[in-house]
Amino acid sequence: MKITKRSMLLATGGLMMAALVATPMSVLAQSAKKPVIASVVFQGDQFMKSLQQGIRQAATAAGAEVLEVNIDGDQTKETQAIDTYISRGVDAIVIAPLSVTNSAAALKRAREAGITVVALNGGLKDNSIPNATFRTANADLGKSSGEAAAAFIKEKLGGKANVAILALDGLIAEQSKERVDGFKTAAANGTQVNFVAQQDAWLPERAVTVATDLLTAHPDINVIYAANEGGTIGAMQAVRNAGLAGKVFVFGIDGSEQLGKGLLASDDVLQAVTAQSPVQMGADGANAALKILNKQQVEKETVVPTLPLNRNDPATVKKFLESLRG
Fold it and tell me: In the CATH scheme, what is the code of domain 138-275+310-324?
């Protein structure tokens, strides 16, 4: 039998058609579709927005589809969101868990469903659940701001201070405790510090009210420490509203444009904060998820270093503000 070019083409075409028929359409569709990454955060402050920005930018640059949700500090909403993403069959969930313990069960179900899980920010207590974790140690955040406070108290306040604390126990108790305890230990090192009061206030509007009430009830307060961005903003505004600039001084956690400007302001209210790098953390989380989906190895846990910002170092503050503008 003579084999012609035409017969070879027909045979080749037949083999290709047979291969297509033998391959399930679901597999073909999966190989052609974009990876889908779900981005989950627990509140809408600048830090969490920047975290999602980093996830979004890295994932879309790699050609992935990104789904975003903010669960507004509600554990039930977080569980529902994760279960919805499991049902939808997303490829990865990149999440700042609301709780290091209570968020675990839903994320374990996601892993069991074959979904890649990357934890950011505080991560999970059970480190076997996420494929990878990127976080800044909360105790280190508190310690850094506490060290700045101790230096200030020694230099400006004669080594003595009455301190009020704005915490976030009702939102993320584990992280709040680590940030507060880290601050207390460092601030009391070599100083005589009296911790006058501690109340929850993590949103700016609430923090203004709480800090104002504390200043009224305890007129001897001369230092306020807030364990997150919203609390720090509120404390700063409360001091200004009370006309106590130059008499009461604020230290906090997180970095944002408003806090950076507060450090550069001439009113001398905000003294120091310890920032994280949320855009980079989010991008690292998304890139890790994509690598895992491509069967590449990633580190199980990555500690992202703290970034101390102090009004005594305006150049670093300005550089940080420039980084926020992209």
Answer: 3.40.50.2300
- CA–CA separation, 68 vs 66, rounded Å? 6
User: Do the beta carbons of residue 185 and residue 143 sit within 8 Å?
Assistant: yes
Over 60: is that where the pLDDT of 16 sits? no
Question: Which pLDDT value is given to residue 60?
Answer: 97
**Sequence letter at residue 318:** K
The yes/no answer on whether domain 32-136+278-295 falls in CATH 3.30.70.1450 is: no
Please state, for a pLDDT cut of 90, what percent of the chain lies above it. 81
> What letters, b where the CB count within 10 A reaches 16 and e where it falls short, cover 80-103?
ebbeebbeeebbbbbbbbbbbebb
Amino acid of residue 191: T
pLDDT of residue 6: 45
State residue 326's pLDDT score: 60
Question: Which residues touch 82 (CB under 8 Å, ≥6 apart)?
Answer: 40, 93, 95, 106, 107, 109, 110
Domain residues of the chain, as ranges? 32-136+278-295, 138-275+310-324
Answer whether 32-136+278-295 and 138-275+310-324 agree in fold: yes
Of 225, 222, 220, the closest CA to residue 235 belongs to 225
* Digit-coded pLDDT (tens) for 142-198: 999 999 999 999 999 999 999 999 999 999 898 999 999 999 999 999 999 999 999
- Rounded-to-5 percentages of helix, strand, coil across the chain: 50, 20, 30
